[in-house]
Amino acid sequence: MTNHLVLDGVTRRFGSHTALDGVSFTLPTGSICGLLGRNGAGKTTLLSLIAGQDLPSAGTVHINGHSPFEHAPTLAEINLVRDNQRYPDDFTVRNVLTIAPRFLPHWDARFARQLAAGFRVPLDQSVKKFSRGQLSAVAIVLGLASRAPLTLMDEPYLGLDVNARRYFHEALVRDVAEHPRTVILSTHHVEESESLFDRVLIVDSGRILLDADIEEIPDLAFTVSGRDDAIRELTVGMEVLRLQTVPGLASATIRGTADDAFLARADAVGARIQGVSVADLVTALGSDSAAEAVAA
Fold first, then answer.
1. How far does the signal peptide extend, from start to end residue (predicted)?
2. Average pLDDT, stretch 192-214?
């Protein structure tokens, strides 16, 4: 499988602030990638660089071998949908859908109308009067109906209710299966979205903390819980990503897999071992308590 996207040593500074620090990863063509991390982690800056809307301070971004910045053929193949899309004050959704093909060469008007109906978006109402959820729905319509070979979505869920989010998931999976393309989805709704992903990037403080195929997640970490004193003794010398405690009890997220010896020791003290989800890893890797837990 060829790589659609290649980043090598990408750094982006804004004055004295480093938003991205030496980011490197590749993304295969046709992947649906979850870009995850807490607010301020650097996700939006990263998407802007991939979309060719900004230049890195150092390093390179290549899409199918080309830098996207000011390269018209590459830019025509990218669509970045933000959570704060802006439209002219007098625009209706019908206006938005009518003008979209001028900027999105793979635009599917029929699919756009189908999506708008599915989200129950009124076509002739001024976008200026829309709720947060309705604005998110319009942005998702633009993202999916663009059928851009590289589709980037930055927090498209804001304000959407659970039914609308489910409709989005179903539409995304179905349409990407029928019209393959590479998708990067930045979201805080990790538990709802992780079944969509075949690849996961977790970002924190401008660095990639995890770059993994979804199948690798079960082997990356596990949790062990039980009596506080037993858990602390069990995890001595292990890489504890996160430690949660309540009086007398503790739960630790540990990097790696639990071998037979550890399983036997845990069983002997009545500790419980569980696998981790993508959401668990996002929380653990971005936790301020990780360093404290390792020290403990």
1. none
2. 95
